[in-house]
Description:
By secondary structure, this protein is an alpha/beta fold. The chain has a single domain, classed as Aldolase class I (TIM Barrel, Alpha-Beta Barrel), CATH 3.20.20.70. The protein has eleven helices and ten strands. Strands 1-2-3-6-7-8-9-10 form an eight-stranded parallel beta barrel, surrounded by seven helices. Strands 4-5 form a two-stranded antiparallel sheet. It is globular. It starts with a helix and ends in an 11-residue tail after the last helix.
Amino acid sequence: MKTYRLNRLFHPVSKKCFDVAIDHGFFNEYAFLEGIENIQAAVEAIVEAAPDAIQLTVGQAKYLQQIPGRQKPALVLRTDVANVYGRSLPAVAFSKMIDQAALQAVRLDAACMCINLFSIPGAPEVTAQCIDNIIKLKLEADHYQMPLMIEPLVFQPNAEKGGYMVDGDIKKIIPLVRQAVELGADIIKADPCTNVREYHKVVEVAGGVPVLVRGGGKTNDEEIIQRTTELMKQGVAGIVYGRNIIQHKKPEEITRVLMDIVHKNAGPEGSLKYL
Length: 275
């Protein structure tokens, strides 16, 4: 059954996945809401661009699943909520999982569940909470045959760089990715690294578990196009982008440009003219 659901995530020809994350409202950060103030309109706009999947929360999944038709993107259900994305860590930092997450995923007709594995300087207790969450969710995932996407996130210190800044150090990314694999991930959603040409090392350490690469924060069109092109050359199984899509001035167009890179091996040449 997990294979059946995974088949809904990955393109039948390219065997790759382009997933758009629109779950940012879960994390109680004002800046994250730009572009998704009207969540229904944001979801419908992305659906028009036809990515392989859209990542949403239990409260917003309805805006995807109520759309009629058989060809809409698959649902990736975000299963945990955290308060660690601000410019400073709160006195009590947490990462909490929704109740009976796998059952809710089944009821929402999700193809996959996503859960974080944080590594945050000065907050080892949050990593411990994440591991507890994953251990519990793994049993549920296997029971309901719901694929489990684990998202290893390596932060820079919040106090030094502001909230939610990706570290980019491949020597920190690799062991956290491997830990996620050891915990039972069916899919990895990993940080980009500073030198993208080294990313094959992340793919290798995942040992055959598909690796999708997330955006790691908002950047410009040229950077995201160049990075995506190189990541595909490094052997990743796909991409999960959020703010680089939903906060773009042309979200449908950038989605289509990046999908051509992921699914058709299109190069960066000429891509910017569509934006």
